[in-house]
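Reply to dn_fold:

You asked what the input looked like. This is it:
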Amino acid sequence: MEKFTLKTPQTADKLAAPILMEFKEKYGITPNFYAALGIDGASLSGYLDFEKAIEDFGSLTERHRELISLSVANYNRCHYCVSGHTFSARKIGLSSQECADAQRAIAKDAGDQAILSLSRTILEKQGHLSQEDVDAALFHGLTESQILQVCAWTALNTFSNWVNNITQPKIDFPKVDFA
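and this is what came back:
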């Protein structure tokens, strides 16, 4: 497959350029995923707005979001995201084993497991949850709102996985194998 041309603040469209510049100023680099998503400013802007809304107004913790991200990345075979989310998850205190387990949708904590199981079921059933699936999530303590947030975070990560699988950006984190 021919590689896509990743964007820089200088080569991106007028919507993506300031966003990529902000990443460069904040981190010293523009992570390759964002440079790939910056190929289309509307996609980059929409992705970041969706992500921010869930992070700022949702009830899923950063830990929950990283667990879901690892599980979804492994399911979608996104090497970039498995590596990036392992890096992020380790920074917030997850162990290497917890990260590897999350890739397989496994967690020791019952609440974490309920979230991972729901996310994996959403992926496997392409969102066509049965009443039993919903009842199981509710039984394990998730609210209706949290069920939708798990769905949203699963979808957001699926989108980022697909972008990476299509554009194949160089992994700019320590590489992690699929579990």
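The chain has a mean pLDDT of 97.
Hope that clears it up.
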